[in-house]
Write a structure and sequence with these properties.
Radius of gyration: 22 Å
Number of helices: 10
Number of strands: 19
Shape: globular
Structural class: alpha+beta
Strand content: 15-25%
C-alpha cells in the first residue's frame, strides 16, 4: 500500500510539474499568452468553461428548463482514499469548506433540475434543508448494502410536480454480472403549468472498475429497461404503428465510460453486438488477446429484460392494454429491489421476445451534450471525460450548455478538489426546450 501511495504521488507530481508553488501558469497557446497565479483560478475556469448557445426557432408553446449534473465526491470516500488527494490543500478537503462551495455553485447555476452522484447519506439532512430553502424537492437512493453514498435528483417545486418515482438497484441476487451495489433514479416530472406533459429525468453512478465493462453494460441495459418503462407513451400514430413513442428523456450521471468505449457507443447508437468482444473488457478480439468471448447471454433470461432493453412482461401487458401504459406496470417487472416486497406477477418469458442473442438495443435515440472526445470532466490517471448528459434528440432541443475544458486547458488546473472546484469532478450544465401542445 505504501508503494502504491508513493507511486500515485509521483504520477500526480508529473501532472503538476508545470505549476510552481501551486500557481497556475498558462502556455502561449492558451488565453493569448496571459499568465496568472492561483489567486485568479476562478477567472481561468470561467474562461475555459464558457456558455455555448444554439439558435433555435422560437416557439411560444415551448417549455424551457435547465439541468445541472454533478458528482460531488462523498466526504467519506474522500477520506477513505485520502492518498488520491495528497496534492490538494488540506483546507479545501474539509467538508465544511466543500459544502459551502457546493452550495455557492448550486446557487450560481440556479438550475431547474439537479442530478447528484456521490451524495453521502449522513449529509442528506443538510442538503435537503439548504435545497428546500431554495425551492427544491428531492429524491435520494443510497447504494445497496453498507455503502455511504448514493444518487439524488432535486427539482424546483414551483416548476415541476412529481408524477412517478423509481429507484433502480443493479445488484440482482445470483447474477454474477449484476453483483455490484450501484444504483440509479428515474423520475417522471410534469410542468406545473401544463401537467398533461411529462419529462423523464434519470441519473446514475455506474461501476468504476476499468476492466469490467461487461458489468457496466449490464447496469446500463437494466437502467434503460426502467427508463423505457417509465417514459413509454404508446405507439406512434400514423405510418408504422409498431414504433413506440416516448416522453422526453434526460439521462445524466457518472458513467465511468470514455467516448471510445463499447458501452458509450451502445448509448449513442442504440445497438451493440457484444458476443465476439473480449470478456470482460468489451475490447475487439484479436488472435493475441487470449481472452474468451462475451458469448450470447449478457444477463439471464429470468430477469425478463429483452435484447431491446424492455421488460418482456410489460410488453405483454401493453398488448393487452391496447398498447397503452398501465401505471402499475412495475408489478410486472422481474427485477429484485431491496426496499420492497418482491410480489411481482411472474410468468415465463414469451418466446415472442428475444433474449441472449449476443446483441443489445434500445429505441431511445440519445444525443450527448458533451460529444467532444477531447472534453474533460475529471482526472482518472489522466484528464478524461466520464460524466455525461444524454437527451432524446427526437423531442428535446439543446439550447445552451456550459463547455468542458479540453485536455490542454486542464493542464494548468490544480489538483481537485481545490479552492475553486469543491469536487474531483466538474459540474455539467445545460438548458433544453421542447414543444408542448
Amino acid at each position: 500500500m505504501y508503494i502504491t501511495k508513493e507511486f500515485s504521488k509521483i504520477c500526480l507530481l508529473c501532472r503538476l510539474c508545470p505549476i510552481n508553488n501551486f500557481a497556475c501558469r498558462l502556455s502561449t497557446t492558451v488565453m493569448q499568452k496571459k499568465q496568472f497565479s492561483g489567486s485568479n483560478l476562478m477567472d481561468y475556469m470561467n474562461y475555459v468553461r464558457p456558455f455555448v448557445h444554439y439558435n433555435h426557432e422560437s416557439n411560444n408553446k415551448s417549455f424551457n428548463f435547465s439541468l445541472l449534473s454533478y458528482n460531488i465526491l462523498a466526504q467519506e470516500l474522500l477520506e477513505k482514499n485520502a492518498f488520491l488527494y495528497d496534492w490538494s490543500d488540506v483546507h479545501v478537503l474539509n467538508w465544511d469548506y466543500r459544502r459551502q462551495r457546493l452550495l455557492t455553485e448550486i446557487k450560481q447555476f440556479n438550475a431547474d433540475i439537479i442530478c447528484f452522484q456521490e451524495v453521502q447519506e449522513s449529509h442528506l439532512n443538510w442538503f435537503f434543508k439548504k435545497l428546500s430553502d431554495l425551492g427544491y424537492n428531492g429524491v435520494y437512493k443510497k447504494r445497496t448494502r453498507a455503502h455511504c453514498d448514493g444518487c439524488a435528483i432535486y427539482y424546483r417545486n414551483d416548476k415541476f410536480s412529481l408524477k412517478e418515482k423509481v429507484t433502480v438497484e443493479y445488484n440482482q441476487p445470483g447474477v454474477n454480472v449484476l453483483d455490484r451495489d450501484n444504483v440509479g433514479i428515474v423520475l417522471r416530472l410534469s410542468p406545473r403549468n401544463n401537467e398533461a406533459e411529462n419529462i423523464v429525468v434519470s441519473t446514475t453512478h455506474i461501476l468504476y472498475n476499468k476492466k469490467r465493462h461487461d458489468i457496466k453494460l449490464a447496469q446500463v441495459h437494466l437502467l434503460l429497461a426502467e427508463i423505457e418503462r417509465v417514459s413509454y407513451k404508446g405507439l406512434k400514430k400514423g405510418g408504422d404503428h409498431n414504433i413506440p413513442e416516448y416522453h422526453p428523456i434526460i439521462l445524466t450521471g457518472d458513467f465511468n465510460l470514455e467516448p471510445n468505449t463499447a458501452v458509450y457507443d451502445f448509448l449513442i447508437n442504440g445497438a451493440l453486438f457484444y458476443s465476439n468482444l473480449q470478456k470482460p473488457t468489451l475490447w475487439s478480439q484479436n488472435s493475441q488477446s487470449g481472452r474468451c468471448n462475451m458469448g450470447n447471454e449478457l444477463i439471464p433470461k429470468n430477469l425478463g429484460i429483452t435484447e431491446y432493453s424492455q421488460h418482456s412482461d410489460i410488453l405483454e401487458l401493453r398488448k393487452k392494454n391496447n398498447h397503452k401504459r398501465q401505471i402499475n406496470d412495475s408489478l410486472y417487472s422481474k427485477l429484485y429491489h431491496s426496499e420492497r416486497k418482491n410480489e411481482q406477477l411472474l410468468s415465463s418469458p414469451s418466446s415472442e421476445f428475444k433474449f441472449g442473442t449476443g446483441s443489445v438495443y434500445h429505441n431511445l435515440k440519445f444525443s450527448s451534450v458533451y460529444n467532444n472526445n477531447n472534453s474533460c470532466s475529471t482526472y482518472h490517471d489522466r484528464w478524461t471525460i466520464v460524466d455525461y448528459i444524454f437527451y432524446t434528440n427526437t423531442n428535446l432541443k439543446l439550447k445552451t450548455y456550459m463547455k468542458l475544458p479540453n485536455f490542454a486547458e486542464c493542464q494548468p488546473i490544480l489538483a481537485m478538489p481545490n479552492r475553486v472546484s469543491p469536487s474531483d469532478h466538474l459540474p455539467l450544465f445545460a438548458k433544453f426546450s421542447y414543444k408542448i401542445k
